[in-house]
Design a protein that fits this description.
Blueprint (H helix, E strand, L loop, with lengths): L4 H18 L3 H4 L10 H14 L3 E8 L5 E7 L2 H4 L2 H11 L25 E7 L7 H15 L11 H9 L1 E6 L4 H14 L39 H13 L3 E8 L5 E2 L4 E4 L5 H21 L10 E2 L7 H5 L3 E8 L7 E3 L5 E3 H21 L1 H17 L7 E4 L6 H13 L6 E2 L5 E6 L4 E5 L5 E4 L5 H8 L18 H4 L5 E3 L6 E2 L3 H6 L9 E4 L3 H13 L4 E4 L3 E3 L2 E3 L4 E4 L8 H10 L5 E3 L15 E4 L4 E5 L5 H14 L5 E4 L13 E4 L8 H12 L3 E4 L2 H7 L31 H5 L7 E7 L12 E6 L16 E2 L6 E2 L2
Parallel strand pairs: 3-4, 3-5, 5-9, 7-8, 26-27, 26-28, 28-29
Antiparallel strand pairs: 1-2, 2-4, 6-9, 10-11, 12-16, 12-17, 13-18, 14-15, 14-17, 19-23, 19-24, 20-25, 21-22, 30-31, 30-32, 30-33
């Protein structure tokens, strides 16, 4: 029996309505939805409830936060697609050039080679990476509901329930409702504690005064939107694993900005990084025009092509872009100050309902445009990958970091980051290659390869991303940039590397030779030395110190048994260790690829004998980190995270108001970060007395400036020259008013790498290279010590600078 098309369509509508009736609406499931903020656990519960009620939704937990909250995504698509989701994922990776092999057929036996059966689009929507920018997370339940039920409340008629159902036939949508659950919870809980029964839109109301440290950052007070390239945080590392599994065609990052701003969406502002393709530029415009039609139909204000550029590779828009995707930021006016409703400068009141409605619109619009262009997206991203693999930029064939010039710990630091980004690397295999190219300082180079070298070939699908991350120089065509302008990973990690114009042949797995060589030797009878090569070695030594390791160091180079031992090396003697631990300490260091040098005895051939007073004993110090509500959140969090998650060493946060002689009585080291106020006379005297008694005070950034004003300390700022003249130039009285913004930032440093010199004879300089790169993000000119102290690190008047 043949059923008529009208009857089939009627039956389809009845079934669709029945399915939507079983899926709970956000309003029914979430108390006060659109009027109050949703607790994170309720957000997760709603996603799971929708997945349980809809065959268009699957949930995956891909990690958890430092505070134990789940990180989840929802996969949303047609039921027949979800039934074979992993097969579709693998087909997508083959179609887009991420993996080798022939793509399998699409649902309903559709062959992807036929032009009328395009491949699936993969769209990833990331909500609220900044925890106090809640409109994204609050919009996500409505987006999920509309996709799960094939209905939409989107105004303007641009997208209908029918079109949503059609889009899901050829689209996999990945929804991450909250990239930063810890920050989101901190902010929303804080607002709920301070909110009143009746809305108080006045900006001076308590609800609109966010308390320190605010909800923007994660547990360790890191900005997760600037961590994509560095991947220091657990949330980022978990997300990158999932991202590498999917490699979406389109990634949109939904944020909020200043409360008086309207709404921003693509296309992005200049400067664009020079490796961004014409297709990526065109598609940003195409998707922006679609958003604009919806916003125009509803009378909503917006802007494009301003403020948010595509340069620094560590954002949620740029990182996907350098992976070949269409990466975009969407910014809604509101953010942490907005609360539930706030009166804006123009006299209107914007509510959480307004804010989530706008994000809901751009989310659905993004899915619509991607679905309509699935074939083009797949073809273009595959072409992006092919060009990256076949024709590397600038004729660069590889980057090499010789084992003879870099410590194993530093090389492993780079290897870890590369692996997190799916970048291939290795060591020379077989015959030793001859390297030809140039150094990072642009000097010609020719050298012989060795088994332990770290080699990164550019002929690979991640070729564009790796060149963006590893190249020494970045073109910055305009001074008006949003953020950091230089980021070369090798220079930041203190590696000596070379850029090769010739191939390096076959590679073997990096670290294999080192792992084989470390498995055998037993601990020397008297002791051993371990070169301390900057931060990397301390990530191994610090937890061992906390576990009872005792070490010594000499301020002069030493020679023992014909082995040269650098000044500042860790000297581990069998006599110093707890009974039964010495051999295990040695084995533990060898197991992580470090190469201890044997010490034959206390009588040395050069330098101080090991029993000399000049050879200092080091035991685990007690470290305090000053906390205060005036501190820069990131500065405090970075130190906290470094100790607990990188060094795995305890640190004691103590409020600034509790710092006195008594609280410092058992403290060896005190760290004060940016933002602290000048200590009063009593506190300054207590800290000075503690320092004179042997305490070590570390002042970072503005904290040094605050202490420079106290009489007890000899720090001082350099005399500043005349302020930059921004008024009309007498030589050019008709300078355009339009140039005022560029003139105002001409003395700023948005983030550049600056070459610096190090006094490696100073105790603070021990273990550091004689030259290193500093990230310059502020304009504090310091006077060199001329008396009363010794300068450790200095920058020449005309240093080498990368970035703007």
């Amino acid at each position: 029996m043949r059923t008529s098309l009208p009857l089939l369509f009627t039956l389809f509508l009845v079934l669709a309505k029945a399915a939507s009736a079983q899926v709970p609406t956000p309003e029914a499931f979430l108390d006060g939805y659109r009027q109050n903020f949703t607790p994170h656990h309720k957000l997760v519960e709603y996603y799971r409830a929708v997945a349980a009620a809809s065959d268009r939704v699957q949930i995956e937990q891909y990690g958890q936060t430092y505070e134990g909250r789940p990180l989840i995504v929802a996969y949303v698509s047609a039921p027949e697609n979800l039934a074979r989701l992993d097969e579709i994922r693998q087909t997508h990776l083959r179609q887009t050039g991420f993996t080798n092999g022939q793509p399998s057929s699409q649902p309903n036996n559709q062959n992807t080679s036929q032009p009328n059966n395009p491949p699936l689009a993969v769209v990833w929507l990331s909500f609220s990476v900044h925890g106090n920018e809640v409109a994204g997370a609050e919009a996500s339940p409505q987006v999920l509901y509309d996709l799960a039920t094939g209905t939409t409340s989107l105004m303007g008629g641009q997208i209908t329930g029918d079109s949503l159902r059609r889009y899901l036939q050829n689209t996999i949508v990945i929804l991450d409702p909250s990239l930063n659950p810890d920050g989101y919870t901190r902010y929303t809980d804080d607002v709920r504690r301070r909110q009143t029964t009746f809305l108080q839109p006045d900006p001076s109301a308590w609800e609109h005064q966010e308390t320190w440290p605010g909800g923007r950052t994660n547990h360790y007070l890191f900005d997760l939107n600037r961590d994509w390239a560095w991947a220091t945080q657990g949330e980022t590392q978990a997300r990158l694993k999932l991202y590498q599994r999917w490699q979406p065609h389109v990634h949109a990052d939904l944020h909020e900005m200043g409360v008086d701003d309207s709404y921003y969406f693509a296309p992005a502002a200049e400067p664009f990084h020079r490796y961004i393709s014409d297709h990526q530029r065109r598609f940003q415009t195409q998707i922006g025009r679609n958003h604009a039609r919806i916003f125009d139909a509803n009378g909503w204000l917006y802007f494009t092509k301003e403020t948010y550029d595509l340069l620094y590779p560590s954002y949620g828009d740029t990182y996907p872009t350098f992976n070949g995707a269409i990466g975009m930021t969407y910014e809604q006016g509101g953010s942490g100050r907005a609360g539930r409703a706030i009166l804006r400068r123009e006299g209107d009141t914007i509510t959480i309902d307004d804010r989530l409605t706008h994000h809901h619109a751009t989310a659905l619009s993004t899915i619509a445009v991607a679905s309509r262009n699935a074939a083009t997206l797949t073809r273009e991203i595959a072409d992006f990958r092919r060009k990256a693999s076949d024709t590397p930029r600038g004729g660069v064939e590889a980057y090499v970091f010789p084992a003879s010039e870099n410590s194993a710990a530093r090389l492993q630091s780079l290897a870890t980051i590369l692996a997190r980004h799916g970048i291939e690397f290795g060591s020379p295999g077989g015959r030793k290659p001859t390297y030809t190219g140039r150094s990072y300082a642009n000097r010609s180079y020719r050298g012989e390869g060795a088994a332990g070298d770290l080699v990164v070939p550019t002929h690979q699908v991640q070729g564009t991303l790796l060149q963006v991350l590893l190249e020494p120089d970045n073109e910055v065509p305009d001074s008006l940039t949003y953020d950091i302008t230089a980021w070369s990973l090798p220079e930041v990690l203190g590696l000596k590397g070379y850029i090769l114009k010739d191939g390096v042949g076959a590679l073997t797995p990096f670290g294999a030779a080192t792992a084989t060589s470390t498995a055998t030797a037993s601990a020397p009878g008297y002791g051993f030395a371990l070169p301390v090569d900057g931060f990397s070695t301390w990530t191994v030594l610090a937890p061992m110190l906390d576990d009872g390791l005792v070490m010594r160091y000499s301020r002069l180079p030493t020679e023992s048994g014909g082995e040269e031992i650098a000044a500042g090396s860790a000297l581990v003697l069998a006599r110093d260790q707890r009974p039964g631990t010495y051999d295990s300490i040695y084995a533990r260091l060898r197991a992580v690829g470090l190469s201890p040098k044997p010490i034959s005895g206390g009588f040395v051939d050069g330098g101080y004998d090991l029993g000399s007073e000049a050879v200092r004993r080091v035991e685990a110090p007690t470290v305090v980190l000053v906390q205060d509500d005036a501190l820069d959140v990131n500065a405090f969090g970075h130190v906290w995270h470094m100790f607990e998650q990188r060094l795995h060493y305890p640190i004691r946060p103590v409020p600034w108001g509790r710092i006195d002689a008594r609280s410092l009585s058992d403290v060896d080291v005190m760290i004060v970060t940016d933002g602290i106020g000048q200590p009063d006379e009593r506190k300054a005297e207590a800290i000075e007395a503690w320092v004179r008694a042997g305490g070590r005070l570390i002042l970072l950034e503005g904290a040094a400036e605050a202490f420079a004003g106290a009489d007890a300390f000899s720090l001082k700022l350099k005399e500043r020259g005349a302020k930059l003249e921004i008024a009309a130039d007498p030589e050019n009285p008709m300078r355009p008013y339009a140039d005022r913004e560029r003139a105002a930032v001409s003395g700023n440093s948005p983030g550049a790498l600056v070459a610096a010199q190090v006094d490696v004879t100073h105790p603070i300089g021990l273990g550091l290279p004689a030259e290193m790169s500093l990230l310059r993000v502020a304009n504090r000119p310091w006077a060199f010590f001329s008396s009363g102290g010794y300068n450790v690190i200095g920058v020449r008047k005309d240093p080498q600078v990368r970035g703007f």
